[in-house]
Amino acid sequence: xxxxxxxxxxxxxxxxxxxxxxxxxxxxxxxxxxxxxxxxxxxxxxxxxxxxxxxxx
Amino acid sequence: xxxxxxxxxxxxxxxxxxxxxxxxxxxxxxxxxxxxxxxxxxxxxxxxxxxxxxxxxxxxxxxxxxxxxxxxxxxxxxxxxxxxxxxxxxxxxxxxxxxxxxxxxxxxxxxxxxxxxxxxxxxxxxxxxxxxxxxxxxxxxxxxxxxxxxxxxxxxxxxxxxxxxxxxxxxxxxxxxxxxxxxxxxxxxxxxxxxxxxxxxxxxxxxxxxxxxxxxxxxxxxxxx
Amino acid sequence: xxxxxxxxxxxxxxxxxxxxxxxxxxxxxxxxxxxxxxxxxxxxxxxxxxxxxxxxxxxxxxxxxxxxxxxxxxxxxxxxxxxxxxxxxxxxxxxxxxxxxxxxxxxxxxxxxxxxxxxxxxxxxxxxxxxxxxxxxxxxxxxxxxxxxxxxxxxxxxxxxxxxxxxxxxxxxxxxxxxxxxxxxxxxxxxxxxxxxxxxxxxxxxxxxxxxxxxxxxxxxxxxxxxxxxxxxxxxxxxxxxxxx
Lengths: 57, 225, 245
Prior knowledge:
The complex is a heterotrimer.
Chain A: H1 2-9, H2 11-56
Chain B: H1 2-21, H2 23-44, H3 48-71, H4 73-80, H5 83-89, H6 94-109, H7 111-123, H8 128-155, H9 162-173, H10 175-189, H11 195-224
Helix pairs in contact in B: 1-6, 2-3, 2-7, 3-7, 3-8, 3-9, 3-10, 6-8, 6-11, 7-8, 8-9, 8-10, 8-11, 10-11
Chain C: H1 11-43, H2 57-84, H3 87-119, H4 127-148, H5 152-183, H6 198-230, H7 235-238, H8 241-244
């Protein structure tokens, strides 16, 4: 299999792209999702607050 | 103590009577079991050597799936008509009530599978000895499936898509039962002693008997409040 | 200096505290990741038998260990929330779960990539790998149950019970899988085949610390959103600067 040969010839590339890149990609996606969630939550809270204020007026 | 036994028998009898009124439900589980097991030779080919090797695993996995199928009904009928709420308020121990429901659930959905096993075992050309051990392991193992499954059934009570969720929660927890159950049959086919597998299954059964009724009762309280 | 820990067990005080701590954890995680990778790839020599491929363990082993510990942490928080009815513990439990599941995924993924050059197969039914897979299933069950119950209180309590049952089951599962593995004379992955060079140990240790700090930082970030969401009707949330502006 060609992947087998490629893997033995470029072990460090294999390790980097296969394991570390994927792991850090997972971390990046997780960070992005958490930041996105925070943004949405804050937006919702601001909307609730504005609705409350306009009701009081 | 005597009163508790009476209560247990009462609950088991009540649930069995209810199950007999809806015989179709019981039969569906059994037919599902037979059908899944019969599909395997069609899927992997009719070589008897391979089938004989696969048989314990196939029968066990099919029994696992079949018992998942019927778990959704464990509490749902009582939940819908309000009986469950009365049971929670009753002065009697909820754990005993739950244990009764587990026992009747096993008699309705687990025991028929055990009794059906010899026929299916012959389909897979299993030896008489292996069939005997398989039946014994299912006899010890299927009650555990009912009891662990009851926790999942109580947690997912009244949820949308509860059936699939229930399997997702319960199947990983049943893996030890599957391993020891099939291991016993493979041991007897390999000419080894089965006692260690079966005694481990027995230990799991005792553990499940001791803890799952109480845990299920707590789960019911969480779901019903 | 005595710190009153109970003060920080209330969401009101924990929210700003977590906000102050997150940058510290995040920055130190980033520094340690850089240092660990430098030592792991530049300083540490290639392994005598495994060549360059062994360098996967610097992420694989920390991810495996952390995914297992996080399940216990999650179950611990869930149990606290269930027994003492503390809101923050339940929120922490549901904040830990996704991170634990992702670490389990990373552990499986890197394990597969390590297995291919070592044993010639992406997946071997080794006891550790199989247990890790089941652990991932347990995490997914927790998350799925929590997500499908709308009432947050019931969701917390039901998922907590599931986590406790799961953590009682984990040793039984691990033992049974191990037993199954030896019975079938399956492949057993040996981690300590060769003696580890001192730089390898350092790299492993630093990567482990980096992953822990990352896990703490991301969990705190997630729990802050959960706190805001759950407490959205309370006064203190409306008074926050980030909500006002």
